[in-house]
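Researcher: Please translate sequence to structure tokens.
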Amino acid sequence: MPDYQGGDLDLRGLRRGAYVIVGGIVCALVAAALMLRERGQAANAPPHAFDGSAPQLQPAPQPDRVAYLAEKRRLLASYGWVDRQAGIARIPLEVAMALLAARGGAAQPARGRPAPAAPVVGRTPPILVPAKGAR
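Model: Translation complete:
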């Protein structure tokens, strides 16, 4: 393995490359400035700056989040009506899971909707091919 002495590095080539890169950046900036001066603002730029007040943020949203999550947990663990006229009720999650397990895992499909086809274990789903003429 040859010993590196430092004499085979061409600094003139590196300097020229750096000048080309800096020159390209300067040309791009000048071209962008000329385009902005000629064409004006972008079409989607607002006509004037927003002068409204900033939105008011909560200083401490954590208590509201805790209350929200507690309410959701309470709903998951309680009985109640979702829509009394349609006969849709809410039951606790643990009770629903026990009922589903007692049936052997076969849930009843929602009214008016067809039951989804059960996947066949060990089979690859079919590849969907677009209709003829569709591209």
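Researcher: Any highlights?
Model: The longest strand covers residues 80-83.
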